[in-house]
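hiii so um. not sure if this is the right channel but i have a protein structure encoded as tokens and i wanna go backwards to a sequence. like what aa goes where. can anyone help
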């Protein structure tokens, strides 16, 4: 393991000759493993082949990958981790048919997880449509509850987006029923669209999640048990706060205000408003920035405690930071006094 760690370090430093020599030394040690150490042998060989792939010793890496595959076939019970890592290795080597064939030996959640991992290991340009279509078919034809379905879709949607299949990503986005998973997936798709300079489209994707998040009905503070670690109110605040941050990155501050206006936790809303205020100042609208920052301070000052809300001190600290960033020393002092 130490030799392979050193080989990885050499590969990162572009010292391919030394890296290859260290891999060879590691493999020589592996040859002395006993039958009881077969699992360790497979794992180390996968690591060795990955290093060889990185330094473009592709013939040796392919040879080693096939040795590993033969070992897994002969093993009485191959682990999911080893099988998935081997599929990823063949994906890195560009042998997608072999990688897919390995994934096809898995079932259920293991198969879905392996497909996710494999798609991330393939360069986008080399991802075959059949791989994503198999994945989509697997996802849509498994009968599971709404939470697990939403979780799976939130994991796969960014891969479709990165592969250029925005329409498929958007269609899956519409199927997510859990607001928390929806906002995560929407933000991931928006990031891809921003990279493509499609700001309007990115905002439209975020709007889908914002609309759902604003409709969450929070409990009243007294309805939340003191022992509860979560609540609808907390989920709503987390979703809308994160979306507000995403809107700020896009420069779409009106949409950020709309999202934040629906947050029921007063201190969390004040924190989110403070960020919007600083963003307006950065855009040059100092009048609106100061108005929003003072609104946030008044909200923090006058609101009663709400279960699962942030502390007032934390909100004031956020306001101090934002007011300082915006260049309002009097507002900084007002928040400091509180």
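sure thing!! here u go:
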């Amino acid at each position: 393991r130490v030799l392979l760690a050193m080989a990885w370090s050499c590969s990162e430093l572009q010292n391919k000759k030394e890296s290859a020599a260290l891999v060879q030394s590691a493999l020589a040690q592996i040859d002395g493993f006993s039958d009881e150490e077969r699992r360790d042998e497979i794992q180390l060989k996968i690591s060795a082949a990955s290093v060889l792939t990185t330094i473009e010793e592709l013939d040796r890496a392919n040879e080693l990958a096939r040795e590993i595959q033969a070992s897994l076939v002969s093993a009485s019970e191959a682990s999911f981790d080893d099988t998935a890592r081997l599929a990823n290795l063949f994906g890195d080597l560009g042998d997608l048919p072999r990688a897919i064939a390995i994934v096809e030996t898995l079932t259920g959640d293991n198969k879905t997880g392996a497909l996710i991992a494999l798609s991330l290991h393939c360069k986008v340009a080399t991802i075959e449509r059949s791989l994503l279509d198999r994945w989509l078919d697997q996802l849509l034809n498994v009968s599971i509850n709404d939470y697990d379905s939403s979780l799976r879709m939130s994991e796969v949607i960014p891969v479709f987006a990165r592969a250029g299949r925005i329409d498929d990503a958007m269609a899956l986005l519409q199927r997510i029923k859990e607001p928390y998973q929806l906002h995560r997936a929407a933000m991931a798709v928006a990031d891809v669209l921003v990279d493509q300079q499609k700001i309007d489209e990115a905002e439209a994707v975020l709007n889908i999640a914002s609309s759902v998040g604003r409709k969450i009905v929070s409990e009243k503070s007294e309805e939340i048990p003191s022992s509860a670690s979560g609540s609808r109110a907390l989920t709503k605040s987390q979703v809308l706060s994160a979306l507000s941050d995403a809107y700020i990155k896009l420069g779409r501050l009106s949409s950020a205000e709309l999202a934040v206006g629906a947050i029921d936790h007063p201190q969390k809303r004040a924190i989110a408003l403070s960020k919007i205020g600083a963003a307006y100042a950065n855009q040059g609208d100092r009048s609106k920035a100061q108005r929003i920052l003072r609104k946030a301070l008044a909200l923090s000052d006058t609101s009663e405690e709400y279960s699962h809300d942030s502390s007032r001190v934390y909100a004031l600290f956020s306001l101090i930071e934002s007011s300082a960033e915006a260049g309002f020393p009097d507002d900084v002092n007002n928040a400091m006094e509180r």
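oh and The chain has 18 helices and no strands.
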